[in-house]
Amino acid sequence: MEKLPVIRNMAASGLVSNKPAMIYGILINSAATGASTAIIYDGENATGKQILTIGTITSHSAQFSPLKGVYCEKGIYVSLGANVTSLTLVYENI
What we know:
This protein is mainly beta. The chain is built from no helices and 9 strands. It has one domain. Strands 1, 3, 6, 7 and 9 form a 5-stranded antiparallel beta sheet that branches. 21% of the residues are buried.
């Protein structure tokens, strides 16, 4: 059986995976009160290596879909900034 990527919806910062993983897509949504930013770390917390920052303007969404994925050697941790209503992450533990 083919292994499928995991889709994880988040409304707060937190650990996504504590294993090596590949990120295939991110969707961030902002509130009507202001722009939003999320930071993705390679690691189990916000002290890991910062690998990606994604943001959007007030009341909008933004997506990131790399062609070959983004490799995270030590896991994936997501830090959601103010005004992020949700973030959807598509990834696979490898």
